[in-house]
């Protein structure tokens, strides 16, 4: 059994140990030591520690049969090894995990809401609590309460109890083991069975900031950051607010109102542009219909466009075939490809898909649609005119034009 020094002293950063067992599995060395500083990754909880053993990077740490296994790509070439953990990683995990205990106990005490999910990620932490919904005022109340606990700098201690002793404590959740139950206590405020690493006093958490929350599987998922992560989160947000306020020549505390005003103005402008484009398309469609070649009372509108928005050209084709007895054959040349649209009015008996299937290969293209309107694109731009002409010829033959 590996002695878990990280539980006894989570502040210890370096330690010597002996290799008890070494296996070579799938291109990596798996070391079992007599004792370790390295916290293993645990499903649904705290991530593993980072660091080195005899200078070799530890790429994974896991627990198996009460032993801690350390995975390395390089051999340590010794039975006596030196362990060094990455302190920044350890400390941020301690801050985040302790912050989670503080938040979870507040939700439990104030709202009888249980924590049913916990994830400590590389950037953010979240908990799932058994509440149907949350509002801003409730979040602010919880956040203020949590930070008062932090600023009060309450002592945090850990100790082992048996099943009977555990039953006498006001535990926030029940232990999953019956012996050697490790309790994390925040000065008679919070009691929870936990095998993670934690700071010595709440003040070391620094600050808790709830970033966002959302409904999740009947509960509420709350995302937050603590300590150094909260500082980083504030820093980038502050930088962006300052950049936005400078860009808009407004004070930082009025930048939201300025952005909202610009957003509303832009929304109105986009609506105006959309309406103008619609009118322009109608005008272009009318102009093309006027210039259409008429065969047996059927108007054939045939054109190739360059640097036009394909969606708008398709909309124009749809407008034209909405009138009686009209055929549309459009080509569009774009930067590195070309596209075609073939369409016909409801009162013309021809399957445009059949025409399309026989001509799209000319531009090395593909696409699809309905018997009335079909579209597709290809890469042979220099063959677009040939594709359009072939489509027109087939349509004329089919309709005896």
Strand order, main sheet: write it out.
Answer: 2-3-7-6-5-8
- Tell me, rounded to a whole number, the average pLDDT: 94
- Give the DSSP E fraction (strand runs of 2 or more residues): 25-35%
Number of strands: 21
CATH class of the largest domain reads: Alpha Beta
Structure description:
With 401 residues, the protein is an alpha+beta fold. It has 9 helices and 21 strands. The strands form 5 sheets. The chain has a 6-stranded antiparallel β-barrel with strand order 2-3-7-6-5-8. A 6-stranded mixed β-sheet has the order 16-17-18-19-21-20, sandwiched between helices. A 4-stranded antiparallel β-sheet has the order 9-10-15-14. It has 3 domains: 83 residues, Elongation Factor Tu (Ef-tu), domain 3 (Beta Barrel); 146 residues, Threonyl-trna Synthetase, Chain A, domain 2 (Threonyl-tRNA Synthetase, Chain A, domain 2, 2-Layer Sandwich), CATH 3.30.980.10; 109 residues, Diaminopimelate Epimerase, Chain A, domain 1, CATH 3.10.310. Helix 2 packs across helix 3, helix 6 crosses helix 7 and helix 8 packs antiparallel against helix 9.
